[in-house]
Amino acid sequence: MSVVFACLDADTLGGVQRVTHTLAQGLARRGHEVHVIGLQRTGAPFRYVQRPRYHRHLISQFPSDCALARKRYDRRLKALLGEIGSGYAVLTSPSVVARVSRLLPRGFRPIGQYHGSYDHAESCWHLASIRRHYPGLDQAVFLTEYDAWRFSEHALLPNAHALPNPLAEWPDEVSRLESPRVLGVGRLEGVKRFDRLISAFARSGAPEPWELHLVGEGGELDRLRTHAEREGLGGRVVFRGAVPAARMPQEYLDASVVGLTSEHEGLPIVLLESGAHGVPAVAFDVSGGVRSAGPVLVPPGDVDAFAAELGRLVRDEEERRRLGAEARARAESFRLHHVLDGWEALFAHVDR
């Protein structure tokens, strides 16, 4: 049968989209017929795969804000699913599960993904939606065994399963960990809290010529520039903008430490990629997914503790090398072929 991935927005810059396209390409290379469906278009599309072996579909050029437009787009989606015929429908968020699961033809086996942590779901509307819509699916997929257990206990899910995010590529080369550079990667939006990373870098005691490089774009750029100036960092915080996926390996090779200061995370790809390149990371302990990637953990929101660990790694090259080697060994389990094996085993389980 076919494999269909349905996203609210399949082409924006984000972790859900990165994982979706990585899995789609991997499964297509294994001979599956794969479709990625975006329910609406983003304002700034980002291309994750240069030569996709899967089919891509866009239901609407615009967000469906009114009921009449939503009905029209749902008819279009239902017709497309009817043409595909049957398969496994991987619905990548609670909002997509709520909207798409009722439109699936009888030949589809619905699988609900959740890319966040249980802790984040509990703090917002996600948990109520998961409790309402996920029990009726063939399978509910979470990022870690810890999250799957908590959802099964507290959302009463009999169908919870754990599959991690995959690494798109496995690098042969690792960082020398000699460059005086701390790296942050992600959308420049409030939830990523790069202001905390800037403050931690300022308090870490990192001497010149150490710099903080931020890769990503978003609405917080001007505020973060101002914040860096107020922290007295001047030109030592370098805003790199969006970097094409093909150039990201070099960013990790040029880094010696990665910092992650998000308000919440599921299983961040940046921690898997930096680990695969042998780069140690410091992160707030905000989810089971963050813990599974193996960074140096500090209490959520504790900027001073983050600064202390960041400063320790900046000053201690031997410790960077030790932790970088551990990170690469841990990242091995997230290699794409391992994760694809897990998905194919899940499909077989659903069929039984």
From TrEMBL:
Keywords: Glycosyltransferase, Transferase. Residues 14-165 form the Glycosyltransferase subfamily 4-like N-terminal domain. Residues 176-329 form the Glycosyl transferase family domain. InterPro entries: Glyco_trans_1 (IPR001296), Glyco_trans_4-like_N (IPR028098). The keyword Glycosyltransferase applies. This is Uncharacterized protein. It comes from Nonomuraea antimicrobica.
